[in-house]
Design brief:
By secondary structure, the chain is α+β, with helices and mostly antiparallel strands. It contains 34 helices and 10 strands. The chain starts with about 30 loop residues before the first strand and ends in a 9-residue tail after the last helix. The relative contact order is 0.10.
Length: about 750
């Protein structure tokens, strides 16, 4: 009895009732097509983060799994439960043809509905039986559907043919495996559960304590707070945020407090291991909800790297997509530690995440990175590697990064601007390095405000506060920063999550026009605001009619006899604007990106005046031909003939100023059902990335979570905390009862919760 396992009580021994198909002799040879067939999955199939305890790894592809019986005997039940929790692998994509007995046939996705036990291996292009893999103890002898794989697709769905014969009757090996699967999932039928009967009151207390732990973990993760304390002993005066929060809840709720006092230490759900398990469950639920929100829609990735507090290179992965209601979503999905930042390493880690959540590379429709060479390089860069596998995953250089490079170029290349910022930096460092000087500066500013109040220039303190909110510290100072600050609107807009590529390009164009207008027509108004600022702040103003002298005023240093007015007007004001326009034209070239030019045909500016049927058709033919077959392209053209007369006439489509507003209105008015192909094209264009600001915000969250005092936090724990912290709107909607059920089936537990 010592060597027997729990599954020995569930299986029928010496069962020889198997179908003829379980042997390999009856399978007709099939000649597969070459390995160059386009595959939806790439990279290593194993996960970087262990799914099971003891560092055991979950393998998603059934063709390369390790047989259950090859795992350590004491861990086989846990491995079975992990695979059952994930379920069979049933990828939906364009299956390749194989030649069987002189005819080309292929696997059909409809078989998944008829045979729920069926799963498909992309590595081997073969079918497998999920229950037989998990429970069949003679898989080495009958290995067609468990080890080698079945790939003869000829009449597999007919009576007394392949799949039916594998299922067999009620006494077949497959039927026993199906029953064992149901018995293992039904925890109430386990022997240890029947032997450890507990009262309903005890179960309620167990669930109450577990709820306290779940809410504590969720709260701390959403606030980005540390869990552990330096000293968590009973005598400690500060046991850390988690234990102190549980204690606080016990003091606020007498029922929780009394239950905590009566319960033994090993049943309070306060151990670090329990905290990590709960956090991982919540994070995985968030990721699953994001994956369900994507569904079969196309998506793009935003990727960036940063070094954390422990000097580890971390890669953040953001998924951008359009949901069912037409809203653009940029969701933080994962942060992965990478050993180096080479393109091959980054792609491997991204593909591992894709494989884990069944995200197909062929559904990738955009890539958003910064301008680093390992990302944008045309031969071996990350964007090139993904384009080889998904030709429609177009790379867009982050617009915010382009703008930053343009402004940095202005501050470095224009000497007077560089000198201004250098002097400003020195002044800030001089004041900030001394608490005394910092206090004196604040005192001077406070005295100035009090003086303005006494003179009646500011009526009340509330008026002053409102003025500060509306206009800044001094409304006159705004003219001083107008030249370099004109791009602030563009900078702020590019950092929003829901901006689309057309609006971004339009905003770049209006920024150019605004700068040109300031250069041509607004010098006098700008000069007046500067003079008024100097007058109000007792700044000496030179005579603008005098000759401008350079350097040390020696005659050899004077190049031209120009006035002070001309120097500030032409050599500074105009020079700064000209250089800004030049760098913006270099970083945002108009008309050079054909994809964006053709996409402008969908723009809503000026009441659909940019609508162009030929350009829209060219957009589909050149860039999205994979998403529209030949028949659908003809249907799209006929659909657009009705669309251009129908949609602009409706009141709800009037005054729409962006493409994502059009997509939302199409979904809200159910026009997306009437014009499905047009809606599909709009969603594809909206999926294109604009900036990687979301990744930068993710790294800001990482700095709050992994601090100098918490620099030893594990990679998995940090990633799970970041998911809950950043996507807190999803985490807030997770039902606690659902988390308890997930926690209960994670592994065998001595304490019952239902």
């Amino acid at each position: 009895m010592k060597n027997q396992k729990i599954f020995d009580f569930f299986e029928k021994k010496n069962d020889e009732s198997t179908s003829d198909l379980n042997g390999t002799n009856n399978i007709s040879p099939c000649i597969s097509e070459p390995a160059s067939i386009k595959r939806p999955r790439l990279g290593n199939e194993t996960l970087d983060e262990p799914l099971l305890s003891n560092n055991l790894q979950y393998v998603s592809d059934p063709g390369i799994r390790i047989p259950i019986l090859q795992h350590p005997i004491e861990l086989q039940d846990e491995v079975r439960r992990a695979y059952i929790d994930k379920g069979p692998i049933q990828p939906i994509y364009d299956y390749p043809f194989t030649e069987c007995e002189g005819q080309k046939r292929r696997f059909q996705s409809s078989w998944f509905q008829k045979y729920p036990w069926l799963e498909f291996s992309i590595e081997k292009q073969s079918a497998f039986c999920f229950p037989c893999y998990v429970f069949d103890t003679n898989s080495a002898q009958f290995d067609t559907f468990t080890v080698t794989g079945f790939k003869n697709w000829k009449r597999v769905d007919c009576k007394n043919r392949s799949f039916k014969r594998h299922e067999g009757d009620g006494n077949s090996r497959h039927s026993f495996a199906m029953r064992k699967r149901g018995d293992l999932k039904n925890l109430d039928q386990h022997i240890d559960r029947r032997l450890e009967k507990q009262s309903s009151k005890q179960i309620e207390q167990n669930r109450l304590l577990l709820k306290v732990s779940i809410e504590s973990v969720k709260f701390l993760a959403m606030q980005g707070c540390a869990f552990r304390g330096h000293d968590e002993s009973v005598a400690s005066k500060n046991g850390g945020n988690y234990l102190e929060l549980v204690t606080l809840l016990g003091r606020m709720n007498p029922e929780i407090g009394s239950t905590l006092e009566k319960t033994s230490k090993n049943a309070k759900y306060t151990s670090p291991e329990i905290q990590r398990e709960i956090l991982k469950i919540i994070a995985n639920i968030v990721r699953d909800k994001i994956r369900a929100e994507i569904g079969e829609a196309k998506f793009c990735i935003l990727v960036d790297e940063a070094i954390d507090e422990s000097s580890k290179e971390q890669m953040a992965i953001i998924l951008r997509y359009v949901d069912r209601d037409g809203f653009i979503r940029e969701r933080f999905f994962e942060v992965v530690h990478v050993e180096n930042t080479s393109a091959l390493t980054l792609k491997k880690e991204i593909c591992n995440v894709f494989n884990q959540y069944n995200l197909l590379t062929e559904n990738l429709r955009g890539q958003g990175y910064d301008g680093a060479s390992n990302m944008r390089e045309e031969w071996n860069g990350l964007q090139t590697l993904f384009l080889k596998d998904s030709p429609h995953a177009y790379y867009i250089h982050c617009f915010a990064h382009r703008l930053q490079l343009a402004l940095v170029a202005v501050s470095k290349e224009v000497h007077d601007v560089w000198r201004f910022f250098s002097t400003l930096t020195s002044a800030i460092n001089f004041v900030g390095s001394s608490a005394k000087r910092h206090f004196q500066l604040k005192s001077i500013r406070k005295a100035e405000i009090n003086n303005l109040i006494k003179l009646g220039e500011i009526d009340t303190v509330s008026t002053l506060l409102q003025d500060l909110v509306d206009k800044g510290l001094n409304s006159n100072i705004r003219g001083e920063a107008k030249v370099l600050g004109i791009s602030n609107k563009l900078c702020q807009t590019l950092q929003t999550n829901d901006i689309d590529i057309l609006n971004a390009m339009n905003l770049v164009s209006t920024t150019r026009l605004n700068l040109q207008q300031i250069r041509d027509d607004r010098w006098e108004g700008f000069l007046w605001s500067v003079l008024k600022f100097c007058e109000s702040n007792d700044v000496e103003v030179p005579d603008f009619d005098d000759c401008y002298t350079r350097g040390t005023k020696r005659s050899c240093q004077q190049k031209n006899n120009i006035t002070v007015h001309d120097h500030y007007h032409f050599e500074i004001f105009n020079a700064v604007i000209d250089f800004q326009l030049m760098t913006l034209n270099e970083r945002f070239p108009e008309g050079t990106i054909e994809l964006l030019t053709l996409s402008n045909a969908l723009s809503l500016v000026d009441g659909f005046k940019s609508f162009s049927l030929p350009d829209i058709c060219s957009l589909v033919d050149k860039f999205y031909y994979y998403d529209f077959n030949l028949e659908e392209r003809g249907d799209l053209e006929r659909e657009l003939d009705h669309y251009k007369f129908d949609v602009p006439c409706h009141a709800q489509f009037q005054n729409l100023n962006s493409l994502h507003h059009l997509c939302q209105t199409l979904a809200r008015t159910t026009k997306s059902v009437i014009y499905p192909l047009t809606d599909r094209l709009v969603r594809l264009v909206l999926t294109l990335p604009v900036s990687t600001a979301t990744t930068e915000r993710a790294f800001s969250g990482m700095k709050l979570i992994k601090t100098p005092l918490c620099n030893k936090i594990e990679n998995g724990l940090m990633a799970n905390t970041m998911v809950v912290y950043i996507e807190r709107d999803i985490a807030l909607g997770i039902d606690t009862e659902f988390i308890i059920n997930k926690f209960d089936v994670l592994k065998n537990r001595k304490i019952r919760h239902k």
